[in-house]
Structures are given as C-alpha cells and as structure tokens.
C-alpha cells in the first residue's frame, strides 16, 4: 500500500457516512450511518475506516493520526451522551464491532460492554438498579475480551461458567444471581492473569484500543480467510471497526431485543416476520437460552415500540428498495436500531421479491435482474431431497451436477440399460466413466464415481444431460468385478441395493431419500404455465424475470447437444441454436463395430467401405438434428477425440486375448484390436493424434462427415425445411491446417450441390482451443467464418493441466491455499485464458469484421464467465440444455448491470 496522505480521514461519525460508502465504512458502518441520516433511532457512535485497517495490517501498527481522531470522536460521543467512557458513577459503555464491505457472519471479532471495570461495574449497577445485570455484563466483557483480544482459550471461561452453574445447582446462565456472577468475575480475571500473563485492563481507553486492534487482526484469521475464499471475497478489502454506545435489552420486562425482516426471507411474502425476546441481550437470542416469541407478539407487549418498528421497517424497505434484515433493542421502552442490511433470502424468495418490487414501482426491470442470480435459478431447477427425511450418509464427493437421484446401484452400463428397460431406477456406480458408459449414463437416474472432478467425463456429460452426478467420492471403494462398493463404516453396498446421491452437496446416502420435484423445470419444459394455478407464483416470478432477461440480453444462447432429443429439450429451454454438436457421440453404441473396422482397415478399399457404411447413418443423425433445430444455427464439430477412445480398454482386451489363447478359442479379431490399441497408444493423447490432425492423416474421415452434413441439409431444404449448418474444425493450431480441410470441404459441398440441385450455404469455422490458435487468430480468420472458443481445452493448454489428473491430485490444496479462488475449469481465468479469448476475438474481427464469435466450453453456462463473454463482445454462448435458462438469465444480467448495485 502506498503512503497515506495527510488529508486521509480515518474516522467517521455515524452522522457523516452513508450507505454508498461500504468500501470505506464497511456494510455495517455504512448502514448505521444511513439510518442515522434518515433520522432513525441509532445509538450514537463512529466508524474507523477500512483504510486504517489496511495501514495497520501492512505496517503492523495503526496510522499515526488514528489515535487522535479516535480521541476526538470519543470526546464528541461522551459530550453527546453526557457521560464518559468507563466513569465510576455512571459509565458510558461501547461495543467494538467488525464490519467488512461484504457480510462475513461470525468470521471476525466483536467485543461488547467495553468500559466496565471493578469500579464502573458498581456505578452501572446503581444506575440500572440491577446488580445482576451489571455483574453479568462485566462477566461477558472479561470472557469476550479475554478470548478475542488476549487470545485466552475460550473453553476455560466456559468451563468456569459451567462449574458455577453446577455449584448453584442450576442449568441456565440466567438463573445465576449477582453474588454468583461476582465470584465468576473474580475467577475470570484469574484465568486472564494466568493465561495471558497480564491483568484484565481496568483502563477503559486501553480496553477500547486493544479491542480495535483485535478486530483489525481478525481480518486475517484462518477462518476469515477460508470464508473469503469460499465466498470469493477479495482479501485486500480490510474491515472497518464500529464503536457504538451500548444499549441494553436486559433491563427488565420493558426491555428486550429482536430481529425483523421486512418480508419473509424464506418465501418473499410480505408480512410481520421476526423474533423478539423480552429482558434479553442479542447474544441470548442467538444462544437459544430462552425461547423467542414471534415479532407480532411485540404489539401486545409494547404497542408503542411495535408501531414505531413497523413504521421504521416500511421506511427502510422503501429507502433500500429491497428486503431488509434488522436488529433492534428496546431499552426501557426506548427503541434503538442496531443494524440493517439487505437481507439474505432463499432462491425462491429472491425471484418473488424482485417481481414484487417491480410491481410496487420501487425498482425497474434492469434492477430486478440484479436481485437474482443464475446460481439461484439453478437451485430452483433441480429436485431436492426432503429436508425432513431421516438419512444415513455413507460418503461424500464432489457436487458435479445438481439434483437428487435415487436408484439401485449398478456397476456397468449394460446392467444399467437392462434394468432401466425393465422399469428399474438405477444409479450407475463406476470408478470413473468413459465414452463406453454413455448408454448406461443415459439410462441411469444419476452417476456416482470414486474418481474424477467437476469437469471429468462423468461430470461434463451428466450436466449436459441434466443428470445428477457425484464425482470423486474417494471414501467409497468401488469393485466393479465383484459388483459392490464398500462405504464409510465398512458397510457393503451390493448391486441392486438402493442408494441416494445429492448432486448439490456431493453427499451419498444408503436407501431411498424422498425427493421434492421442481415446478420450475416443468415450466421450462412446457408442462406448467405461468399463472395456471397458485402452484406457482414462484413459476410466475421466474417467467417474468426470464422475460426481463431475454429483452435485455445481447448475447444469444445456444445448446451443446448431440441428438434430436437433446436439441428439442434445449429448444424448449430457450436455446437459439446448437453451438456444439459432438459427432464422436454418434459413433458409439451400435456403430462401434463399424468404427472398429475403420480403425483396423489395412487397405484404402477397406477404409472407404467402412466410411461408406457410416455415411448414411451420419446423414440421418444430421437430418434429425436439423429438423429439431429448424431455422436455427447448428454448429457441428467434426471428429475430435483420439481413435483409441473408440476401442476396448487395453487391460480388458489383453485379458480377453489371454483367455481365448488359453482355451484355444478363435481370437483373431480381438488380437487385431489389441494390436491397434498398442499402435494407437499415446503417452499424452490430449496432445496427440486428435482433432484436425485426424482429418489430415486419415483420408476420407472428415470428407465423409462433411458430405453427410451437406446431404442432410439438402434433404431438409427439399422438404421445405430451413437447415442452418455450420461446420467446425477442432484443434486447429495454424491456418494451413484449416485451409487444407476447408478446401476439401468446399469441394464436397460443391459436389452435393451439383448432385442435388440445391444451393447450400454452410459456414466453415474453427474451435480456438490452443494458445497458438488464439495468438494467430488474425491469420486463422482468413479461412474461418466463425470462431468458437473451446475453453475446456484452452484452459488445459494455457495452464499445462491435464484436467482429470489435476482436479483429483492438487486442486483442493490450491483452493485451500488461495492460489485459486475457484477452479479455472469452473469459472474462466480472466487474466490468462480470458486474455487470450479477448486477444483472439479482437484479432479475428480485425481480419474479418463479420466474424461470428461464440464459446462452447463448460464456461458457456457459468454465470461469472457469461458476464466476461458479454464484456469481450462475443455473439453467443453455448452450454448444456439444462444450463440454458441460467445462461439466458446471466446474459440479461450482464447487459443490464446497474452501477452501484451490490447484492451478494
């Protein structure tokens, strides 16, 4: 941090700030100032800025000017209150509270009742007319100060408190009397002396200064750092410190404390929501020492304060134009506001409240979009397990694809398909999945693997299909040969046993856990109409928010879909085309034998024969796809993965050959396959013979696919359809590769046009998924009509990561150490990968101004990444069908981002 200017102001009175100064005053301080400015009853106080915290943390000492500023503000506070901090006869007491820009509940430190000492506790007792209250307040101060400021083990205080209750033969703190608490204070002071090596400070100003430093220090505690990493809060913000005069809700039946919400944070409904506790301090409510009463009961207990609170709540909601979360205290009939903030809410409440506020004229459509998020929409779309159900958790993995799935455990795809066709619901359990498992994955309710991460094969395919998936559940020992897995506690799950997996939490349960279906998905699939019945004012709210987003967004949203069924589902979900059709998925299943023959072909004639048999099958795939997406663009990626992925596993095949030889059975085909597997084996297949390289070294492979696309388009046109095919060449690293493939493709298209008499306009472009492609995008654009950024592979090649390996081996450590705030496979790495995307987009359009730009990696459905793609000027994002609504919403939010809107 640079030098602090002489004019820097480190302390603001509550009368000086406002809600827009959260960077400087933190959320709590900014909102206390805002309520003060509104004329609401806020106990006087002042805020020490985040800038002071940064200086303290950088230098190890507070800014030179801070002490004098604090003294001046404390003097002003004492004059206003008519008493001095910690004075013997009638002490002013203050709280010292943390207050970062973003709410970090419970992560940083707070000290209450500062100013109490052996002398002033007597004065407080006299003024309050309540000895017990005074000694309890002093006890709380020593306990909190000892733990927070002096680093004393908090358990020592708790043990002493428990012992005092045992001695008194009572069970709760409130049953201890003044004499008991006085003895406890003596004991607490001895604990401080022994553990901290010093006496509990009797000087009130020393108490306050030490507490301020402790709050600064708490910004960098392990728990605060971990919380910030999880919530993706920057580490360099620092915390403000709020010094506020104490008010007490535990001074008798005309006092109390409570929390209130201007709307129900669970449902979004308007009404009186909150809790109240008579004769109590705020921490008593949190500790659950006594049962609270509903906020509505306050009207009977203290109608004057209740009416005033209702008026204040209306004022705050109208002022903040949002649901407000309020903390308040009543001290002997006087209402005090201790905190307000924009309240956290459930996903459903967020959508309802946003539309309610539009209807009330408090916000417009653009602001309504800032009040919800794609993550909240995703929560609403997936079925969930019933929270009330009794469960037996037996493992936990990575929450790879949300949802709640129940079924019988099966350990191979064949069984999954067979049982599913018999009407059984199954969970496919594997160590990891591969393309061979696709049929089983489609048949299964969900997928569970003991290896892999969020972007493993299982995870990516599951998300594409909207399947629940838990990956990398390492505690589970999967034995596919014996068709069983061993779970926590040594319990064995046999094939056919019921299990339940939660793709939102990664948890795995024994038995069947009941699920609650999502009406939001039914709405997107057209099975429920907004406004059809009360079911769903939630559906109505989602419908309206999505309409807002679609009106605002510039980015178009396409789907990653490989067959007509997925394409139709994507279209129902609002897809405006297909951004990625992976043709390798069409080569699996019944066609595997044909593909094996192609790979094993020894002569050109054999290879041509195999391609000839594959051609009509490929053509029919594309006819169905163009029909489903009639009138919308369909981007088809030519074959991308290495050929060995279409052959049996080398170990499995070796065993089959060895067994056949031992039994003297015919095994010529298996032997040829094994030889091919060995021949095609690569040390690093991700960087080997795949993508455009396949098309260049295996004559006829890409031209067969191009011919199938062109003939399918011609057939659809003759049937009065409107096919809009785009041919995408994968893994291009140099323009020369693209030029060669393009020349062959153009020739094939011309031949099909001549043979069918149909004019075809097939755009030809490429995936940008290698750093060299991004760096030479200006050259590549000379031969490409569009770019689609394959950000999965681009992330791998930029970082030098093998995705499946690194997620399992060291990503957890990188996340814990703060090297990543989030996995770069989950949210795009703006500084590295994002820079290449931006550079390639600009260079490509400099060469070809009408170059169409999209993204088809997993990032296309990630909320934060969608905002980045909007900013760098891409035309569309493409994602799995179930993520389309999320991408549509986030594209709308990106286009209507309002300045200063901050709803974390």
TrEMBL record:
Record EC number: 2.7.9.1
Alphabetical list of PROSITE patterns matching this protein: PEP_ENZYMES_PHOS_SITE
InterPro entries noted in UniProt: ATP_grasp_subdomain_1, PEP-util_enz_mobile_dom, PEP_util_AS, PEP_util_C, Phosphohistidine_dom_sf, PPDK_AMP/ATP-bd, Pyruvate_phosphate_dikinase, Pyrv/PenolPyrv_kinase-like_dom
All residue ranges annotated as the Pyruvate phosphate dikinase AMP/ATP-binding domain in the record: 64-291, 298-348
Residues the record lists as binding Mg(2+): 769, 793
Keyword Transferase among record annotations: yes
Top-level class of the enzyme under EC nomenclature: transferase
Pfam families named in the record: PEP-utilizers, PEP-utilizers_C, PPDK_N
Record protein name field: Pyruvate, phosphate dikinase
Source organism per UniProt: Streptomyces dysideae
């Amino acid at each position: 941090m640079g030098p602090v200017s002489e004019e820097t102001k480190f302390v603001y009175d509550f009368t000086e700030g406002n809600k827009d100064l959260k960077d400087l005053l933190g959320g709590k301080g900014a909102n206390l100032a805002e309520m003060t400015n509104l004329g609401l009853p806020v106990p006087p106080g002042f805020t020490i800025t985040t800038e002071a915290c940064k200086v303290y943390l950088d230098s190890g000492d507070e800014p030179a000017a801070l002490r004098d500023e604090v003294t001046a503000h404390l003097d002003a506070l004492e004059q206003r209150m008519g008493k001095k901090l910690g004075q013997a006869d009638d002490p002013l007491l203050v709280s010292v509270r943390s207050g970062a820009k973003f709410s970090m509940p419970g992560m940083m430190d707070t000290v209450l009742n500062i100013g109490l000492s052996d002398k002033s506790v007597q004065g407080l007792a006299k003024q309050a007319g309540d000895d017990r209250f005074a000694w309890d307040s002093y006890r709380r101060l020593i306990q909190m100060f000892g733990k927070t400021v002096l680093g004393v083990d908090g358990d020592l205080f708790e043990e002493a408190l428990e012992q005092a209750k045992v001695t008194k033969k009572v069970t709760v703190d409130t049953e201890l009397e003044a004499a008991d608490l006085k003895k406890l204070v003596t004991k607490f002071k001895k604990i401080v002396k022994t553990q901290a090596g010093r006496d509990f400070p009797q000087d009130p100003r020393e108490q306050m200064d030490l507490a301020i430093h402790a709050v600064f220090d708490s910004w960098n505690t392990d728990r605060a750092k971990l919380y910030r990493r999880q919530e993706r809060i920057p580490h360099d913000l620092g915390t403000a410190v709020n010094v506020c005069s104490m008010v007490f809700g535990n001074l008798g039946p005309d006092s109390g404390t409570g929390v209130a919400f201007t709307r129900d944070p669970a449902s979004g409904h308007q009404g009186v929501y909150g809790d109240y506790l008579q004769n109590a301090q705020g921490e008593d409510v949190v500790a659950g020492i006594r049962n609270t009463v509903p906020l509505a009961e306050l009207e009977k207990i203290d109608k004057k304060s209740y009416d005033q609170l209702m008026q204040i709540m209306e004022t705050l909601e109208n002022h903040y134009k949002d649901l407000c979360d309020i903390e308040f205290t009543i001290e002997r009939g006087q209402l005090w506001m201790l905190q307000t903030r924009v309240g956290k809410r459930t996903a459903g409440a967020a959508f309802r409240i946003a539309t309610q506020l539009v209807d009330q004229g408090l916000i417009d459509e653009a602001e309504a979009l800032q009040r919800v998020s794609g993550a909240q929409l995703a929560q609403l779309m997936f079925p969930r397990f019933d929270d009330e159900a009794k469960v037996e958790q037996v493992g936990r993995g990575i929450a790879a694809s949300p949802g709640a799935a129940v079924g019988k455990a099966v350990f191979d795809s064949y069984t999954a398909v067979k049982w599913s066709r018999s009407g059984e619901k199954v969970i496919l359990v594997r160590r990891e999945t591969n393309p061979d498992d696709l049929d089983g994955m489609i048949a299964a309710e969900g997928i569970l693997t003991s290896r892999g991460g969020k972007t493993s094969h299982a995870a990516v395919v599951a998300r594409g299909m909207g399947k629940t998936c838990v990956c990398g559940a390492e505690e589970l020992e999967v034995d596919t040969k014996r068709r069983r897995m061993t779970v926590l506690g040594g319990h064995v799950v046999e094939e056919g046993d019921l299990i339940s997996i939660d793709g939102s939490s990664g948890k795995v349960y024994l038995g069947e856990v009941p699920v609650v279906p999502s009406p939001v998905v039914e709405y997107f699939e057209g099975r429920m109409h907004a406004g059809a019945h009360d079911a769903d004012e939630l559906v109505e709210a989602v419908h309206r928010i999505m309409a807002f987003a679609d009106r605002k967004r510039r980015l178009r949203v396409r789907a990653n879909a490989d067959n007509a069924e997925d394409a139709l589902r994507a279209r129902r979900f609002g897809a405006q085309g297909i951004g990625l059709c992976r043709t390798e998925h069409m080569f699996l299943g019944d066609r595997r034998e044909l593909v094996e023959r192609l790979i094993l072909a020894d002569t050109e004639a054999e290879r041509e024969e195999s391609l000839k048999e594959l051609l009509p099958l490929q053509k029919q795939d594309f006819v169905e796809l163009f029909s489903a997406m009639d009138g919308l663009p369909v981007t088809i990626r030519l074959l991308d993965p290495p050929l060995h992925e279409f052959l049996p596993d080398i170990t499995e095949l070796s065993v089959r050959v060895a067994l056949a030889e031992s039994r003297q059975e015919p095994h010529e085909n298996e032997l040829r396959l094994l030889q091919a597997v060995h021949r095609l084996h690569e040390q690093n297949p991700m960087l080997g013979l795949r993508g455009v390289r396949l098309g260049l070294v295996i004559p006829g492979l890409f031209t067969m696919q191009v011919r199938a696309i062109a003939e399918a388009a011609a057939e659809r046109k003759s049937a009065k359809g409107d096919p809009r095919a785009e041919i995408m060449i994968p893994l291009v690293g140099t323009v020369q590769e693209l030029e060669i493939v393009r020349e062959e493709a153009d020739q094939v298209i011309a031949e099909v046009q001549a043979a069918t008499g149909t004019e075809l306009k097939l755009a030809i472009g490429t995936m940008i998924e290698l750093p060299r492609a991004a760096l030479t995008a200006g050259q590549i654009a000379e031969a490409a009509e569009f770019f689609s950024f394959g950000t999965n592979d681009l992330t791998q090649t930029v970082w030098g990561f093998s995705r499946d390996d690194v997620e399992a081996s060291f990503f957890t450590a990188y996340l814990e150490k703060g090297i990543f705030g989030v996995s770069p496979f989950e949210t795009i790495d703006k500084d590295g990968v994002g820079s290449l995307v931006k550079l390639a987009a600009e260079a490509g359009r400099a060469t070809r101004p009408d170059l169409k730009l999209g993204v088809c990696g997993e990032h296309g459905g990630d909320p934060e990444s969608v905002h980045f793609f909007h900013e760098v000027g891409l035309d569309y994002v493409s994602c799995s069908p179930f993520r389309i609504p999320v991408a549509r919403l986030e594209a709308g939010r990106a286009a209507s981002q309002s300045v200063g809107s901050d709803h974390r």
